[in-house]
C-alpha cells in the first residue's frame, strides 16, 4: 500500500526524534560562543543523512560558520524551481535557570509539548523541515531544488548576514525563500507571515559629575538619574507616540492588500493578557494595526547609582538607558538615531549622548506574489479555514539582506504557538503543531514544484 505524504511525514518524525533531541542537547549559545563547532559538525551530518551536498562557509571575517546545503529536484520534480530555507542554529542563554521546570537542554515531553531551549527558536523548526524532506523522498521525490542556509548569530543580531549574502549571492539564488519560524496566534489561527519590522538599538548616556556624591549634595548638584529620566520622558508622549521630530516622516502607508489582510487579523486580548500576565491597560486602541505598521520606542533597561542590597545614600555621577525602536518599511535605523540626538540637543539635553548599537531595516514581501498566494492556498489542506495572512511580524530578523539581494519573496511559517515562550524559561512547542508544520512544509514544497 502506497503511503500518503501525511503518513510519510509522521513516520519520518518518529524516526527523527532522537536527532531532534541530540540537536537540542547542544548548548549553542552564540552570546557565549558555546558549542559552535560541535553544532556545525552535527548539522553537516544531519544534512548529509538526507543526501544533501554540504558546504561550511568560514570566509566571513569574525563570523560563526554558516552551513549551506543543497538538494536537487527528484527525477519527477521541477529542476527549474528553487526554494531556499533560512534557519539559525544558535539559541538564547537559558537563564534564569531556577525558573525552568525541566533541564533546559534536555528534550522533555510535558502535557503534549516538547520543552527545551531552542525547540521553538529555531532548532526544532529546522529538524521539522528535514523530516519533511525525508517524507518527500520516501514518496514522490523532491519536487524542486532545495537550498538551506543556517547561521549561528541570529540571537546576537546577525551581524555578519549582510557580507555573507553579498559574498554568496550566486550560491543562495532562489525563486522563493522560507524564513526561520512562525506558527499559530492566540486564536489558534495558522499565520503565514510575509515580512518583519526593523530595529534600531541604542543607548542614552549622561554624566553630571566626575564621581558619585553624597546624596545630601542634591541640594545643589544635579543628579544623572533624574537628568536621564527627564530626557527619556521627552521622547515619548502619554499616548505612546514618539515625539521626535521627523520620526514618522518616512513611514510607508499600507497598501490596499496590506490593509485588507491587517483588518482580517484577530487579537485575543484575554488570552494575550493571560499568556503574558499583563497588569496594565494596553497602550493602543488598535493592537493589530500597531503590531503590523506602528513604530515603537522601548526602554529595555536603566542603570545608575547604587543597585545592590540595603541602603547607600548616593547621588549618581552617571546614568545609562538601553532602548530599541521597532521600524516599519522605509524607516532607516541610523537616520532615526540622528533624529533622536538632534531632538535632545534642540530641547536642552545636549549633554545626553545617543550611542547607536545596531540596526536592521524592515522588510515586507508583496502579498500578491504568486508563492505567497500558493502558501495560503496550500495551508487550507492542513489547517482548514484557520489560516491568516500577516503582512509582517512585530519582531525583527535579517530578511532585508536576502529579499533585496536575491529579489525573492519571503514567507515565514512554523511550529510555535502563543505560549511557546521562545526566549523565556520553559520554551516549548506543542507536539501536534510540530507534526502539522512538517506536513504543511512537505505540501508547500510539492505544490510549489507542480505550479
UniProtKB/TrEMBL annotation:
**Protease found in the keyword field:** yes
Gene3D superfamilies in UniProt: 3.30.70.360, Zn peptidases
Q: This chain belongs to which protein, by name? A: Acetylornithine deacetylase-Succinyl-diaminopimelate desuccinylase related deacylase
Question: Which GO terms of the molecular function aspect are on file?
Answer: metal ion binding; peptidase activity; succinyl-diaminopimelate desuccinylase activity
GO BP, sorted A to Z: lysine biosynthetic process via diaminopimelate; proteolysis
Query: Does the keyword ATP-binding feature in the UniProt annotation?
Result: no
Keywords for the protein's UniProt record, in alphabetical order = Hydrolase, Metal-binding, Protease
Source organism of this protein record: Levilactobacillus brevis (Lactobacillus brevis)
Q: PANTHER family recorded for this chain?
A: BETA-ALA-HIS DIPEPTIDASE (PTHR43270), DI- AND TRIPEPTIDASE DUG2-RELATED (PTHR43270:SF8)
Cellular component terms, GO, for this chain's entry? cytosol
Q: Name one Pfam family in it.
A: Peptidase_M20
Matching InterPro entries, A to Z? Cyt/Met_Dipeptidase, Peptidase_M20, Peptidase_M20_dimer
